[in-house]
Amino acid sequence: MSSTATTTRKQTVIGDPVSNDPEVSQALLEEIFQDIQADLRYDHELNGCLNCGICTATCPAAHYYDFSPREIVQLLWTENLEGIYDAMQEKIWACAQCYTCAARCPFGNSPGGLVMLMREVSIKHGMQSAKNVLRPFSRVMLKLISTGNQLSPDMINPDHFADWGPNISKVEAPLKLLRKAIPMPTLNTTETAWETNLKTSVELYTIWEETGVLDQLETIDENLFDVILDIMDEKREDWEDWQDEQDD
Asked: What is the CATH superfamily name and number for domain 26-125?
């Protein structure tokens, strides 16, 4: 009777003995990796690694940040759980999602796609890194979810984005004058920016609920989640009232 031996690429990684960071349980490390690995895109994005470095050599982010697409692939390919967790605290947020790495990899890997999976899992687990990165975009998320529209140009000003630092002063050009030359009147001001109708808004909320988007939002920004929930309840009541009026 023959038996087939099971193998794993999983490395035993020793943590930093001088770090002040709290120890992360092995169970949590395995759960995080399993969430990444369970995604349907995982096997499509990771096919092996020759360690050639082409992805890092052509990566724009690698030139400016402590980020290497090759490192991401190696961490996942070797199932380096602690290394994966460590990369999710900062490094994965340096990726510009340009997918130059995917276009150049001779093995057909997509480090950018793998980074996207790691970002989604970091949001699912409410990691502080995800909260820090997404916090400045809370006003954008509020507008998108509440009105169905993204930023309108006149929202980009020092009053709305004070947390963007001194570079925000660069947008104090005569933007109203410049925008008149753009043939997109619906994007000219907040007042004229398009809004989705009531029925579509309710349908979008339902999609966000069923797909878990709102659950993920709650783990990242509970205050924003509560605001969105109030808006959602109000719009659903308005939609029900409108339907009742039609029946009458």
From this structure: Alpha-helical ferredoxin (1.10.1060.10)
